[in-house]
Amino acid sequence: MIALCVIARLLDYPDRALFDHRQDLLDAVEAASELAPQYRIALAEFIDQFCARPLLDVQADYCELFDRGRATSLLLFEHVHGESRDRGQAMVDLMEQYRADGLELNSRELPDFLPLYLEYLANGDIERARGGLQDIVPILALLAARLQQRQSPYAVLFEILHSLSGADVEFENLQPQVAREARDDTPEALDAVWEEEQVKFLGEQGCASAQQAAHQRRFAGAVAPQYLDVAQATTRSTGS
């Protein structure tokens, strides 16, 4: 499914190369026969509007949406296992699944990063792609509902993924649940998470002062932007 490659690229961290290859993306969408006509139009419109904006603004919006809080995280197991130990085993199992299908990771991304998973599915036949999407439909539906609530244009990408899966899920049924959720990307929510994790860390170490904690927080704030650049998720065939 060429549409999966296009959506994977659009869900990755936006860079200049993406904007420079806008026409290539549009040509790929036009050739994506697996897309229903209305979704082909919607995807082309998303690309046009996406690439018409200043790159720095698009990058800032991406980080605000996908890198702050967990509700809209693009790490699949974040929505299934959270911080439990089961997440580690799930990562191992997914890596083994990639290897069993002849692929090795060629990026610094975690194996459950959604754009990476979509590229993996795109490298197989249509049955595997559809089955792989059906495996994550509950996550896709929840993300679509949350993005719709936030009036994000990215929501349409998740609607298209749902349509490609062939599964029957009504996004509208999730809206009441999403409406009751507390936002986890506000400054107050992020501060609360940081304080909780920092207290646990200091308690485990038993030798850090409040002054050291304040210094660590200022230092983290100073260096965080350099880690916002998400490496492009790629896969390569084993032995290639």
UniProtKB/TrEMBL annotation:
GO biological process assignments: chaperone-mediated protein complex assembly; nitrate assimilation
* Recorded GO MF terms: metallochaperone activity; unfolded protein binding
- Pfam families linked to this entry: Nitrate_red_del
Print the keywords alphabetically: Nitrate assimilation
Instruction: Give the InterPro entries listed for this entry.
Output: DMSO/NO3_reduct_chaperone, NO3_reductase_chaperone_NarJ, TorD-like_sf
- The question of whether Transferase is a record keyword is answered with no
**Residues in coiled coil:** none
Which domain of life does this protein belong to?
Bacteria
Which PANTHER family does the record associate with it? NITRATE REDUCTASE MOLYBDENUM COFACTOR ASSEMBLY CHAPERONE (PTHR43680), NITRATE REDUCTASE MOLYBDENUM COFACTOR ASSEMBLY CHAPERONE NARJ (PTHR43680:SF2)
**Name of the protein described by the UniProt record:** Nitrate reductase
- Give the source species: [Pantoea] beijingensis
